[in-house]
């Protein structure tokens, strides 16, 4: 949570609607770029800490999954991989598409 706050502390301030179109567009693109960078590093600030916590729980609580602790860690690794792919690949793809829409807004003016 501290990492997210630190990276988004500037984004909490709304964009100034009194800006001209080009400046507003540049500020909006800058925000999209910041979000794309944040999602590109999702494995460090989201997946690994969550995986570490769940692995620690797996060491302290006996697993009822087939395969015991090995089965638990296998399921945990698969879930962490899926979470990473969903956040990084799909999220970044969606943000890049939105960024391209914002870039094309002023080309029709």
Roughly what percent helix? over 70%
Please report the distance between the alpha carbons of the first and last residues.
Answer: 40 Å
Order of SSEs: HHHH
Major sheet description: none
Shape: elongated
Broad structural category = mainly alpha
The total of beta strands comes to: 0
Oligomer kind: single chain
CA gyration radius, whole angstroms: 20 Å
Overall residue-averaged pLDDT value: 81
Describe this entry's structure for a reader.
The chain has 109 residues and is mostly helical. It has one domain (21-108). The protein has 4 helices and no strands. The longest helix is centred in the C-terminal third of the chain and has 38 residues, at 68-105.
Topology:
Layout (H helix, E strand, L loop, with lengths): L1 H7 L12 H20 L1 H19 L7 H38 L4
Helix pairs in contact: 2-4, 3-4
Structure at a glance:
The chain is 77% helix and 0% strand.
Relevant terms:
109 residues, mainly alpha, 4 helices, 77% helix
């Amino acid at each position: 949570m501290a990492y997210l706050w630190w990276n988004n502390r500037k984004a909490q301030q709304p964009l100034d609607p009194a800006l001209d179109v080009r400046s507003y567009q540049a500020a909006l693109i800058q925000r999209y770029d910041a979000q794309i960078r944040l999602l590109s590093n999702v494995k460090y600030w989201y997946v690994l800490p969550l995986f570490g916590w769940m692995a620690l729980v797996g060491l302290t609580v006996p697993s009822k999954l087939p395969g015991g602790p090995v089965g638990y860690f296998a399921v945990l690794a698969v879930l962490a991989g899926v979470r990473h792919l969903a956040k990084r690949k799909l999220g970044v793809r969606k943000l890049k598409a939105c960024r391209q829409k914002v870039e094309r807004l002023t080309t029709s003016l």
